[in-house]
Design brief:
337 residues; alpha/beta; Cytidine Deaminase, domain 2; 2 domains; eight-stranded mixed sheet; 11 helices; 8 strands; 57% helix; flat; cytoplasm; translation initiation factor activity
């Protein structure tokens, strides 16, 4: 269980040395390209390494490269070291500052993500995980977010103490696992000039899909994913309730045996015989292992993420429907005149 000293130490720790993440436009485009290729080709999660450097209170991401797939012969660690050695030879930033992963409508919270970020952040203090949402970006909402583990989450994962008592002591919930770091995409002046020229070359009738009403499939996918997470959280709640019932039953059995042993010792005392010890009862009634609350915390955090996405998505969809209804009414009144 987390001690008072650990709790005091956590309150004195700084949340993060990094105030914001600055990502070069080229690195962001490489992340976007890799994530969309993996999602359209074989529906797998895209992952890769982030390269850059720390300047004062910001983390600059200047380059990135994808991780090798499982079917490739080279080991992942060997591949990363080889790529960084080659980048160093051509005078490119080769310092490892984190990793990135693709997501589908905010579906990124998982035990594997927590474990990977824990290993990154304990070995590289300034490292972040960048999440790119392919589904939302394909609907016209560019979503690139950076996260870091909180000091509480690092300490609890290190001690493997995601027990109810430890969570209650630290007053920790799913919202305390990660902290979001603002992301800024920066381009060079020449890139901004080229983008301005390309924007002028796009015809006015193209690139305007802001009133796209084909949103039923996206909303259905989000609701289906949230139902799956609710079912998972319900199963975890059933397991915890079963554990509580087992603890109560065990305590009742132990009290009954202790009462019986007390009666036996009273009878032996009347006969001037030595009392029987209670050690055998304590050995027979061993404590039941407390189920860890990490999986329920992740499921609750994922449900919260889906709820926020659905709320935002429904508000935008309703606004589009009201706009199209007004346009349709104006068109009908104009045609009738």
């Amino acid at each position: 269980m987390a001690s008072r000293g650990n709790l005091r130490r956590l309150t004195e720790m700084a949340e993060s040395r990094i105030d914001y993440v600055q990502c070069d436009g080229l690195a962001a485009m490489k992340i976007i390209k890799h994530c969309h290729e993996e999602s359209t080709r074989n529906m797998e999660v895209a992952q890769g390494a982030l390269l850059g450097l720390v300047v004062q209170n910001r983390l600059e991401i200047t380059n990135c490269f994808p991780f090798p797939k499982n079917d490739e012969l080279m080991e992942e660690e060997e591949y990363q070291l080889a790529v960084m050695r080659r980048l160093r030879r051509v005078n490119v930033d080769h310092f490892h500052v984190g990793w990135y992963q693709s997501a589908d409508v905010g579906n990124f919270l998982s035990p594997s993500l927590l474990e990977s970020q824990y290993h990154y952040q304990t070995s590289i203090e300034e490292s972040v995980v960048v999440i790119y949402d392919t589904a939302k970006s394909s609907r016209g909402f560019l979503t690139i977010k950076a996260y870091r583990l909180t000091p509480q989450a690092i300490m609890m994962y290190k001690d493997d103490e995601f027990t109810p008592d430890a969570l209650r002591t630290l007053k920790m919930g799913y919202e305390s696992l990660f902290v979001e770091i603002p992301v800024i995409i920066k381009n060079s002046n020449l890139t901004n000039i080229m983008m301005s020229e390309l924007e002028e070359m796009i015809p006015e009738e193209e690139g305007t899909k802001y009133l796209d009403l084909g949103t039923a499939s996206v909303l259905e996918n989000q609701l289906r994913c949230m139902m799956d997470r609710v079912d998972e959280l319900n199963q975890e709640a059933i397991k915890f309730n079963r554990y509580q019932h087992m603890v109560i039953r065990q305590q009742q059995d132990k009290n009954r045996l202790l009462a019986k042993r007390a009666q036996e010792n009273a009878a032996r005392a009347a006969k001037d015989e030595p009392p029987l010890p209670d050690d055998d009862i304590n050995r027979a009634m061993r404590p039941i292992a407390v189920p860890l609350r990490l999986i329920p915390m992740i499921a609750a955090g994922q449900i919260n993420t889906y709820s926020q996405h659905i709320s935002q998505f429904c508000a935008q969809s309703l606004a589009k429907l009201y706009i199209t209804q007004s346009l349709q009414s104006a068109k009908e009144s104009k045609s009738s005149n």
